[in-house]
Amino acid sequence: MELEAIPGVGAKTAAALRELDDPAATVESGDVAAIARAPGVNEARAARIARGAIRRRHDDDGRVLATDRARELYREAIDLLRERTVTDYAAKRLETFYPSASASRIAEAQAFSADATEREPDPAVREALADCAPLSDPPTVRVRDRCLATADAETLARAEAEMPELSVETVEDARDVSELGRSYASVIVLDETFAGLDVEGDVVVRPDALETPSETVPERLLAFFAENRERLEAAATVHEAAAAAGDPVSGGDPDSGIDADAPVDLDRLRDALSRLDDDGTIAGDAELDRLTAAVDDLDAAVSTAASVADDRLREAIRERDVTIEGTDFLSLVEQGARVDSLLDRELADEYDEAVDAARDHLADALRLEPEEAELAERVFGGDPSFPVDHDESAVSRLRTELSAARDRRAAKLKADLASDLGDLREPVEELVRNALELDVELAISRFARDFDCTLPDVVSPEEDGAGGFRIEGGRSPLLDVDFADVEPVDYVVSGATLLSGVNSGGKTSTLDLVALVVVLAQMGLPVPAESATVERFEEIHYYAKSQGTLDAGAFEATLRDFGDLVDGADGRLVLVDELESITEPGASAKIIAGILEALDDQDATAVFVSHLAREIRDAADFEVAVDGIEAAGLVDGELRVNRSPKKGHLARSTPELIVEKLADDRGGEFYGDLLEKF
Ligand SMILES: Nc1ncnc2c1ncn2[C@@H]1O[C@H](COP(=O)(O)OP(=O)(O)OP(=O)(O)O)[C@@H](O)[C@H]1O
């Protein structure tokens, strides 16, 4: 796939996307987190790219949201869903849902929603999701004791690109390789031509080393798993919690075992993670811990062991009477001999015991194995001295031996663990992605449950005859009252209609409800209604109430907007709130009548909220449909409203209702005459 063919992807973004492992498949997958791994692509941008790929797949280049208010309602719908996510991923991923005019896109999203709403939101799953996040790539680890070697310039360039963790050295012959063997703990030669090479040290010829990164640089895998430990554990817990709640992540068979539907063996994953330290080194291996501690504590242990010997010897000397003949004494003094040699002569046994104590201490303190202890013995036991001397070169040999054993052990454990983790590398991507996608599904499910939603029928007017919308029991979650107190609204419109009604009767709220239901329906999401059927509109034009009379210039601009709007209006939904306020009432009525007429001619669906319904009807040259939100009357000075617009009914206005009430209550000519004027 040409990445640039995706709407919104230019050459620069395409270049960034090409850095991904499988750019086309990743972009198509809609996996926002995976797309966001491309350099310089954040999650919001990734969501736009994923949306672009969806549009392209469905050949869907239309823009359904045609006005600011329509776009605002879309944002409000998205926000209602986003509030129900736990992870940032799901919040971003929801942005890939957009109102579409493509039947296949709507069907695809509806299929997703249908499965999602089957899900039972479970508190344990929600809790586990809190620590879930997309996997991230750790910074490159530098491995300094291993190098790659090659004689070939091309292989060199490839090795440098593919194994940034290792130094890549140029070699010409066996001598060069052998030299490298002295500077690095291990050398991997990449050229076949060196096969059979016999040089000292840990040098291997492995022409396939670049193809097997988990063997060549196990550190890479280990760093990846160490970096992502918490996310992996959280994703594993999500799978378990979901399965335990009887609603497994990938919809598998809930009876087939707790982690039956996880793409990895979760126990194996946890076991592997427990063998890994946060810095990507090996954890929990007693032998490695022993060797590491032995190297680290060596100097301190030698010095304590020497003190142990000194104490012993001091004690022994203190308790002994040393008799020395005058001639011996004289000869000692004449030879300039040190008192130390007395130790040899007079205290040989005590000295040996002290040295043994030092050796024992050293072996115990460092928990040395028998062969290592043999080396350690050489640290003490040279010429007698007080304080007891130690042999620095023996310490150094012991250190070299212990370090080498430690490194061998670590390398083996790393290789073993990397080989275990290697099999898990791909499946854990799925493990985490499934957990995060579950959050998207649960957000939709919660939304549907919180607002008593249903999946609407989105129909094509050509196939299904009547266009427009039918909403039954619609309850807007956008009202300024608690959702529990929202009264259900039934409303059906086909063609262009006026919506009249008392002040604060719910006209604007009805327009909002219609817009929200249509936007959600065309996003392929459930809508807050008992049932709904909506035409698959090409465009939604929603105009909010304007703030007062416009000056001549603004009025002209608005009129031009409507001129464009009525041009080719077929397939459009037009919702307009009190357009009359843009100019003086007489002119407004004529203008609205004209716009309605043009829209009606073209089979657009339109609802114009207006207090001038009567005047507009009078000004129109055609039979304008008028619906009304009726007040059942005034009760204790408060309007009682039937929120569902009544078809073909011009609702009485609030002033009319009040005059009527006064005429009833007080009687008299004045109120009666006034009432007649309505
Ligand atoms: N379906 C409903 N259920 C409960 N309350 C509602 C409903 N519809 C509207 N309301 C309440 O009525 C108030 C007024 O609604 P709205 O602004 O839609 O009326 P309006 O007819 O457009 O008023 P105006 O003629 O003054 O523009 C809302 O703020 C809300 O509190």
Residue share in β-strands: 5-15%
Total helical elements: 27
The bound ligands are: adenosine-5'-triphosphate
Distance between the termini: 66 Å
Give the strand line-up of the largest sheet: 10-11-12-8-13
Largest sheet: 5 strands, parallel
Query: What portion of residues is helical?
Result: 40-55%
Question: What general outline do the C-alpha atoms trace?
Answer: elongated
Structural class: alpha/beta
Corresponding CATH superfamily of the domain at 458-652: P-loop containing nucleotide triphosphate hydrolases
Description:
Keywords: ATP-binding, DNA-binding, Endonuclease, Hydrolase, Nuclease, Nucleotide-binding. Its cofactor is a divalent metal cation. This is DNA-binding protein MutS2. It holds the Pfam family MutS_V. The protein is built from 27 helices and 15 strands. Among the domains are: 1-57, Orthogonal Bundle (DNA polymerase, domain 1); 146-216; 288-406, no CATH class; 458-652, Rossmann fold (3-Layer(aba) Sandwich), CATH 3.40.50.300. The strands form four sheets. A five-stranded parallel sheet has the order 10-11-12-8-13, sandwiched between helices. The chain has 678 residues and is α/β, with parallel strands linked by helices. Adenosine-5'-triphosphate binds at residues 479-481, 485-487, 489, 501, 503-509, 643.
